[in-house]
Every structure is written in C-alpha cells, then in structure tokens.
Amino acid sequence: MDDLNAMLEPGQIVRHPNCEDWGKGQVQSNINGKLTVMFEQVGKVVIDSRRVALLPVFN
Fold first, then answer.
1. Count of CB atoms within 10 A of residue 27's CB?
2. Which residues, including other chains, have CB under 8 Å from residue 34's CB and lie 6 or more apart?
3. Which among 4, 22, 35, 55 is least buried, having the fewest CB atoms inside 10 angstroms?
C-alpha cells in the first residue's frame, strides 16, 4: 500500500479526518510510514500512513 502521508514533515500542523475533536496536531516524526503526531486534546499518537491520510492545516 501507499504511504498516504509521505509529504508530511516534522513541524507541520495536521488534523485527523475522522477525529476532529482531537484538535490540531504537530508532526513529530515521519519514519517508514509511521507518523508520530502530538495532538492538542489527546497527546502523542502514532498513525499508520497506509490507513489514514492526515489533513494538512495551512492557516
């Protein structure tokens, strides 16, 4: 399967498409299809890039 978040880099701000209540998250790392993201409301979460495409936040 494809890495749906390959373009994301540490420091970028994202949202989870299915968990809006998590708030914004800052990408901590993106290694081999595993993203570590620190979300405002739930803390650190590891995301499998083959299953979820995070939404970049540009504002």
1. 20
2. 46, 47, 48, 49
3. 55
Residues sharing a CB contact under 8 Å with residue 31, sequence separation 6 or more, in sequence order? none
Split at pLDDT 50, 70, 90, the class of 32 is: very high
Exposure on the CB side of residue 7, measured as CA atoms within 13 A: 7
Which residue in this structure is represented by tokens 């995301």?
47
Percent of the residues in the chain that have a pLDDT greater than 70, as a whole number: 98
How far is it, in rounded angstroms, from Cα 1 to Cα 33? Answer: 10
pTM over 0.85: yes
**How far apart are the C-alpha atoms of 21 and 41, rounded to whole Å?**
7
